[in-house]
Target: Ferredoxin-NADP reductase
Amino acid sequence: MAGLWKGTSVTELSVRVIERTDEADAVFALVLAAADGGDLPSWTPGAHIDVAVGESGVRQYSLCGDPAERDRWRIAILHEPTGRGGSAYLHRTALPGSTLSVSLPRNNFELGSAPEYTFVAGGIGITPILPMIAAADRAGARWTLHYGARTKAHMAFADALLGRYPAVNLVPQDVSGLLPIADILAASPGAAVYCCGPEPLLAAVEAEGQRQGMTMRTERFVPRAVDRTGPDAAFEIQLAQSGRTLRIAADRSIVDVLESAGVPVITSCREGTCGSCETPVLDGEIDHRDSLLTPEERDSGKTMMLCVSRAHSEVLVLDL
Ligand code: FES
Model:
């Protein structure tokens, strides 16, 4: 497994599958413990880990257990037999007693402090929301959860949620249609909105939230479509720490060029969704193409994902 995380400072952990359960149609959950016993690294609601999935590389899965349980992590996986191969690999191999190579938790979807939250989840997107709800509830905040999926049978953890929080709003599409996003957001105009799910849901929540002037956080595990106005152009990067200048050809990514030049860079997903390659930018205009920075973070121009983002200016100065 070594070397799946290219770069120099990603810590790989070996974890053992100690429990595997079916949580919904095509969704199974794994409880993971440190392979050598003892506590696992701490994490906060919204965090995910990278999991090595054989020839298919690595995939990101949200931690969906209780952060207070330091001897175990829980993840849940949507088994997509015709997907890119990651979930099929885990479905086949992640059996109780087997070991997996994973990264330390990383959180690109941090739960901020707020008096009121609106949580919106679609399908397997419920996973990062589960520990958020528990944290919000513990903090005494007002919150609502609106959870949609194709059918009730496709809703992982639905019964556990209902048992613990009877007021959660489950919206199986075959019975109740799609989540009524405009109504949901309008019902709590002062709430901080956290949403995870398939792209159409995320796009709808972002568009409606923007229209209603709300604070939103979304998380994607597949890249969002990028609006391209023309063919990619070449540009230069200057590495402020080493003083080197490198040319990024139109058909190459910054990560490719850095690796070819022997500059260490941490990567995982290489498609702009995980945050591993986030790097401070000191000067230049960034062409953001990732799927995780907020509009405010993009506008600040201070950071970028080197695996997918490019430059609008001739030169970018990176803090490398
Ligand atoms: S490697 Fe995942 S965002 Fe760049």
About this structure: Residues 267-270, 272-277, 290, 305, 307 surround FE2/S2 (inorganic) cluster (CB under 6 Å). Residues 195 and 218 are 5 Å apart (CA to CA).
